[in-house]
Amino acid sequence: MPRLAAASLVGTAIEFYDFFVYGTAAALVLGPLFFPTFSPVAGTLAAFGTFGVGFVARPLGSVLFGHLGDRRGRRPVLVVSLLLTGASTVAVGCVPSYGTIGVAAPVLLLVLRFLQGLGLGGEWGGAVLLTAEHAPARRRALWSSFPQVGPAVGFVLANGVMLALSATLSEPAFARWGWRVPFWAAGALALAGLWLRSSLTESPRFLEIDDHARVPLVEVVRHHGRLLLLTAGALAAGYAVFYAVTTWSLAYATERLGVSRTVMLTCVMAAVVVKGALTPVMALLGDRYGRRPMCLTGCAACALWMLPMVALLATGEPLLMFLGILGALLAFVTMFAVIAAYLPELYDARVRCTGAAVGYNLGGILGGALTPIVATTLAEHGGRVPWGVGAYLTGISLLSLGCFGLLPETRPAAAPAAEPVTG
User: Please, are residues 156 and 269 in contact by the beta-carbon 8 Å criterion?
Assistant: First the structure.
């Protein structure tokens, strides 16, 4: 289990590094380079639009790779998804700017971001299921939480590289070539991830299945449609909060408040480090007290903290901004630490890869794709304190709270049957 958990953690870290480095670049530099004819705010919105395309592609990737995972096994998903995401990320770093090739530049950016999303849509389901289906039932949330640490590691890596380049290069050098370096580094990371995953064995639960679903997506929609919608709605708040903190807040603080890029990246990275370290701790609580109570607690905390968070961000004071971000991420990790165990337990094994991954990534569209765009618009038309952003995030949190309230508990102590609870 430690070797398997480590391989899953490293793999998700690499893939989320690829995904996050684009979000950071969109907040800091892509607008002027690829949408120079727009105003600064419109350019940022356009860059966030290409960022959102990755979320639209993720459910499609989860359908494609979920079919592969339910028909051929969880292990092949990890290899193909890592190759696709890594190659498309390196290619983003090679796209010439608008000033060089004109409108073809943002079009290429859009296509490559779509391919990134396809790969990441498959990665999460494969990595989580391979870990969850190997793990002992009473510690499933703990072991499954290690792939969930991967996004925090990927975020710190992506932003750490951006921070180092931003701090050491002049503004013209960073805009000309410095921002491309983190994208090129994705190639080496992808090769390292493929080597690490080459020794993984297939999930024992998958090998026990005698009658694999012919078309897993059709079976999920037909027999688990309500569950799919509830899981998507339940996860929307986590995505909205995370990307408001890690993507929108960068653009808001640097463009509206005049906070330096280095200071803002440091605040966000420090909070993400704490969030990553606490993920296994929250997962242990999920093994002890149940998945659903943790999710309900996290959603309620998100709803209560969003207005104080935007007030703290609006101060422009690094310490207060850090506290606002940290509070949001602590609420986020309370629910998302157990999601890697919770979602697979909700679906039958024969369609688990498709069901869990599609539900997870549909939540990304609801909460992650639109949040930077909506938040930027609301902040632009509000006063110094973006209360509209806080109200928007509070509303999404309440929606997710209601969806979690309608989902069942799946912890083995609460559901002792041999098969997981199904929707």
Answer: yes
